[in-house]
Design goal:
It is built from two helices and 21 strands. With 268 residues, it is mainly β. The strands form four sheets. Strands 2, 4, 5, 9, 10 and 11 form a six-stranded mixed sheet that branches. Strands 1, 3, 6, 7 and 8 form a five-stranded mixed sheet that branches. Keywords: Signal. It comes from Streptomyces populi. This is Calcium-binding protein.
Length: 268
């Protein structure tokens, strides 16, 4: 918790004047030579957050430290940030608790951590607004347990997409339909607003219409269409066999991929 409070206080000029450690002071800063590597957040997958519920994901990382700096003398945590560096960023996501590390060798620690993502509408103290969806940089922080002014920031440890959760519906009609006749397929693509805790239509997005025969496990793409300004979908196709129609959205950097549950049509 203490390291989270330290990192949460870091923003803009405050970081540069109060927390950043000049090279001249490195000798007096026991964490100055602590380094991070192999940071993996959410198992390498995108982080997807719905309209209101908190999402907690795991992280793993490796810490290398001088042999004369003990494991118990500092705390560490991975950080997501936007901007040039961790210590100058005003947008920072950090877990509620410090990372937990175990000794691998005399100079290497293997660590795990949890990171919480809270939509603004949930009233969390580190809030995500919809404008924050997209690519974040990955960094890490080490803090001297005996002096919070001794901080080591490390930047450029990767990137992570933090995405708004999406939903997709489908309805194929008529049911049943005669072979060779027209099937009309409608649906709606929506995505979470972290600002209002609601879902809104996602307009002008490319979505695939797909079909799976009754006895098959594989969907085939029939065509690609775009949602209208309100996220609605409507197209037609020709009935050829019994099977399932669905829409499938590949996702964007800001919005998760999603496929609708197939709607079965009996062809007579």
């Amino acid at each position: 918790m203490r390291i989270r409070a330290t990192v949460a206080a870091v923003s803009g000029a405050l970081a540069l004047s109060a927390l950043a450690v000049p090279a001249a002071q490195a000798a007096g800063n026991p964490v100055s030579n602590v380094t991070f590597s192999n940071v993996v957040i959410n198992g390498g997958k995108n982080v997807v957050v719905g309209a209101s519920a908190q999402v907690t994901v795991g992280a793993t990382y490796t810490v290398t430290h001088p042999s004369n700096v003990s494991k118990s003398s500092f705390s560490t945590v991975p950080v997501l940030y936007r901007g040039a560096t961790v210590d100058t960023s005003s947008d920072i996501i950090v877990g509620d608790e410090d990372g937990v590390c175990t000794v691998s060798t005399s100079t290497v620690l293997k660590c795990t951590a949890k990171i919480q993502f809270r939509p603004a509408a949930s009233g969390g103290d580190i809030d995500l607004t919809s404008a924050m969806a997209g690519s974040w940089k990955v960094g890490a922080v080490a803090v001297d347990m005996n002096n919070d002014a001794n901080v080591k920031f490390q930047n450029g440890l990767g990137t992570k997409n933090v995405q708004r959760y999406s939903k997709l519906t489908v309805n194929a009609s008529p049911e049943p339909v005669k072979k060779g006749k027209t099937v009309t397929v409608t649906g709606t693509l929506t995505r979470a607003s972290w600002d209002t805790a609601k879902y809104y239509g996602y307009g002008t997005q490319s979505v695939k219409l797909q079909f799976r025969k009754k006895d098959s496990s594989t969907y085939t793409t029939l065509k690609t269409i775009k949602t209208d300004s309100a996220g609605n979908l409507k197209t037609t196709t020709t009935a050829t066999a019994d099977g399932y129609y669905r829409y499938s959205f590949a996702g964007t950097s800001t919005t998760s991929a999603v496929s609708a549950t197939g709607d079965y049509v009996d062809v007579q």
